[in-house]
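Dissemination and training. As part of the outreach component of the grant, students in the summer workshop were shown how a complex can be specified as a set of sequence lines and then modelled as a single object. The example used during the hands-on session is reproduced here so that future cohorts can follow it. Participants entered these lines:
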Amino acid sequence: MSTDPLVIFTPSGKRGRFAKGTPVLTAARQLGVDLDSVCGGRGICSKCQVAPSYGEFPKHGVTVREGALSEWNSVEQRYDDIRGLPKGRRLGCQATVQGDIVVDVPPESQVHRQVVRKAASLRQIVMDPATKLYFVHVTEPDMHEPSGDLERLAVALKDEWGIEDIHAPLPVLAKLQKALRKGNWEVTVAVHRGSLDTRHRIVDVFPGFHEARIFGLAIDLGSTTIAAHLCDLRTGEVAASAGVMNPQIRFGEDLMSRVSYAMMNPGGEVEMTASVRAAIDDLTDQIATEAGIEADQILEAVFVCNPVMHHLLLGVDPVELGQAPFALATSDAMELQARDLDLTRMNDAAQVFVLPCIAGHVGADAAAVALSEEPGKSEDLVLIVDVGTNAELLLGNTTRVLACSSPTGPAFEGAQISSGQRAAPGAIERVEIDPETKEPRFRIIGNEHWSTDEGFGHPRITGICGSGIIEAVAEMRMAGILDDKGLIGSAEQTGTPRCVATGRTHAYVLYDGARFGGPLITVTQGDIRAIQLAKSALYAGARLLMDEMGVDRVDRITLAGAFGAHISPKHAMVLGMIPDAPLDRVRSAGNAAGTGARIALCSVTARRDIARIVRQITKVETAVAPKFQEHFVNANAIPHATDKFTELAQIVTLPDVSFNTGGGGSMGEDGRRRRRARAK
Amino acid sequence: MSTDPLVIFTPSGKRGRFAKGTPVLTAARQLGVDLDSVCGGRGICSKCQVAPSYGEFPKHGVTVREGALSEWNSVEQRYDDIRGLPKGRRLGCQATVQGDIVVDVPPESQVHRQVVRKAASLRQIVMDPATKLYFVHVTEPDMHEPSGDLERLAVALKDEWGIEDIHAPLPVLAKLQKALRKGNWEVTVAVHRGSLDTRHRIVDVFPGFHEARIFGLAIDLGSTTIAAHLCDLRTGEVAASAGVMNPQIRFGEDLMSRVSYAMMNPGGEVEMTASVRAAIDDLTDQIATEAGIEADQILEAVFVCNPVMHHLLLGVDPVELGQAPFALATSDAMELQARDLDLTRMNDAAQVFVLPCIAGHVGADAAAVALSEEPGKSEDLVLIVDVGTNAELLLGNTTRVLACSSPTGPAFEGAQISSGQRAAPGAIERVEIDPETKEPRFRIIGNEHWSTDEGFGHPRITGICGSGIIEAVAEMRMAGILDDKGLIGSAEQTGTPRCVATGRTHAYVLYDGARFGGPLITVTQGDIRAIQLAKSALYAGARLLMDEMGVDRVDRITLAGAFGAHISPKHAMVLGMIPDAPLDRVRSAGNAAGTGARIALCSVTARRDIARIVRQITKVETAVAPKFQEHFVNANAIPHATDKFTELAQIVTLPDVSFNTGGGGSMGEDGRRRRRARAK
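and obtained this result:
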């Protein structure tokens, strides 16, 4: 009836007329307004808080007078007494419409609220979690009309929340009866909505109205480290972050050596699967402890990982990934139960989502980067480089997205470097070398001062991490300590006693801790060679994508990977890790794969999107492309023989030096061997 | 075109015209004729064998001439050379239509063939198994068009067999790649079709065309024994049957004592669940060994059981089943994986189907009996009595089906009987007592002679089993050794020295093995009392259903249960176990619950039917019905005070004796206590 009061919701602008006495929550639901509720309108959960606005709203064509909503009632008073309701707020399930009204739904009352990501991130996460809590009242059993407790719970979920096709795994079934009776036939259930099928699965059940938070883990399962974010499944907030070493390292530092281990040792893949699963269990405990929650409050986990880790997580022998045509056992996204993966620490009935792989060399981690960075939505041509033990590259814009992987090896992570170490307190992470004096200064993790500052003190200096070695090599090149082939000059050639002879080659002494009982940290010719191999592989991958795209430059570059966050774009470009681009268009996206995992954790829509995104990506195979080999060889010099470094030239001038002290610096037998092993 | 040859299939009568050269298999498929094929028409599996008929067929209006089918070809010749093709048979995928033809599809070539059940059974099983084998050719991987092996297998299953929505559990994923490569991209996959949802799950994958048979287990999980039939999933044939004791007996002989154990011992239900699952594992090994197959050829299991066993199998505390309102945790049928139940011996990816429960006292075993015996399809009123430690009763016809359970206790199985034992070689199973001499003769299990026959010899006699004690008590009553209240007379009163005094009561000596170093087997007053309690409970349940149905007699009675097969209807009626009915209308259905399990194992349709069947059954609760108590008390006498025994009177005459030697025989404190405990 047109004489019914008009109800207008902001910020959505949705409006409709409702009979006097209609609860605001009911009006919101009928209009499809995004207003949360866990208790279903019983005045318990307070998730449906709204803020009525009074006065004239010419834009909306209404004037809202006092009395447009029903009086503050006893349920609201009780809630306010116990918990406190912010000023101006009403409970949407209690306040009823009495006259024309404008009702604002604050962000925290929206189910699909947006989570602001950290500084470096552009994209916001719209909350649409697979697992949510619902409070229901279940009919008591009647021996004359027998039906199971689960079946009556399913009826309640359908009647009160419209949720159909309910299933309960056995661990939930085992606790259902006690929860229903303890809660006097009122329970809060955590329901998981599948993204690959339409079934609803009960993950947990709590007596009465359940106040405790529920969590999910976004796990980035890397070759070297396993990193996890613990996210509140309601708000999307990161409650804790933690990481552990991947214990598979004892079976091989890089992916191919793990594949070899599986090939050479019958049952080796079973051993590796068990070890990584145990580590995930440990990580689960660790992160729960850190956040001060119980591990069984973790109801979901999302995994992103490269294809070898993907297979080893699932218990699939990765041997096919070690040889052409690099066939994956399965490429699509998977919905599993934690129990399927023998994960025992999180909730017994926890659900697992594994992102899809793009190809045998480009895994779910790259898919997660694509989900996070959305190259397919970029107007300008963006190159996304996810730097890790294996580097994944994505190049694309709205017209097309290409992907490849490149076997950089672990040098960028400080492994295979003489004084290398993982990024940890005491590791050198930033380096500058004075071009005149050839004297270095550096910063270590956990200390905000440069080594030459007074405040630096006498901290324990333990080694050099990935970002440190990249800066050191680039700085050595800029200071003329290194020539364009990557050779370190002698003390005479460079004019600094820091260049010391080590057999037929030289090393640069970055830090001599002898006086303090500390280590001698040098950059050796071998270190330079390892970095050259890694950066050549990375660069060659990027060039191959650019060839395929038919371009010789990109508009912008995004460095991803936990490590990408710490690389200085300038030094990366001096080194020739990445193609030439305006320095201000090179940015770090932090751990984009981890962010992609978080997005998938917080959004069922994103889980459904990822299949489409992956289908749109064209895979470029580096292992069999002759052009890759050519780019790889050409990329060995610093700077590359093929590069113009036009942009870079505005910032740095590279000295024109050449040290002819023998081999070791050029593209040697090592690199060729590695490429052959991979293409086998 | 009307000039195309006419093809008529028998026995279906389906007909159609097909272009010359059309393979018979193709014609059959297009007409929806039930003609099997595993290899999809590649001439490998020989499942599509047909028998062409030649001559005049006035009924069909055709004359079939030689040459109506293509010539015998090399594929058929090769198959015939290697395997032998029965005379007159052709391979439907090789023989093509050349003229008007009548083609018979022999039973073994029908997917939905009928399996003839054993003598006692009326119903045939129409094969429609959930798990079937499919041979497919999978596209090889292409690194330039990356997709997972599983995804390409799914495409093949869709293209070649029309099977969509394919999922693979991790154990299958782990062996998929090796199978595909070993089979040179041809594999046979075992696909399970869900009955509760529409998904298809790959249960196993074999390289190339797989010849080995696949099996399922139909498991009747009883309180005392666990019995299983191993069925060929293609033919429905029972390859082996085996049984083990339910190890939960150590936690309590009957169901209520197991519920008490769970209540009294924290974690007791976990202990009981583990023990029964371990026993099922053992049984799986045992039955596989017996059939000479590998346990991992068992791809499916179907479970029927009473509610307490149902909950303990699933890992649910049965405590709610021990008290009103006897609420089940879940009542609907369940599809699980063997892994969910920690079953480790059958195939890693084996699927499990658990039949639905009717109510807290009437379980999936009763549902299985209903599936097997179909009371709802009976024109006359049938009472089905499933005798075990707990008796389930179904009463119904096409208008209505009622169900209840009755706490008979384990007396009918020989437990709680002084010389009682399980049915095993050496146990007395049949008894006759001469009304004149009061001398007994008996038969024991494993010996076909009566004890008075010369051929009986001197076997080891160990005790008396359930059917033996029923016959003994009934015969004692008929011989006047027992009065109508159930009291055993003294030697003087009965005129036989076999009646010996035991304190204030008497016992009847059935067998005195002292001379042979054997046992003294007597029927004591306590034994009589135990049988009276059990039979009163059983009878009271049947009467309660008859009250509810508004009848005072039934048209026919079916005795089910492994034990029901051995009960003599005459003795059961003398004892008053079952209501009065014409003796020729009392039959044994054998292990009807086990048969129901087999039906569900062999037919997805039956799995879907069972939900409907269960919904149509009205549950009558004995525990709270005042009428039940009344019937129970009235049923104590032999014969019942309330019974007319009109039919029975034509066969036996019961002596009118009455021994007044004190208490013990009447409905004593024991029975009342048990009923109270149950109604609590």
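Residues 116-122, 662-680 of chain B have pLDDT under 50 and may be disordered. Students were then asked to discuss how this feature might be tested experimentally.
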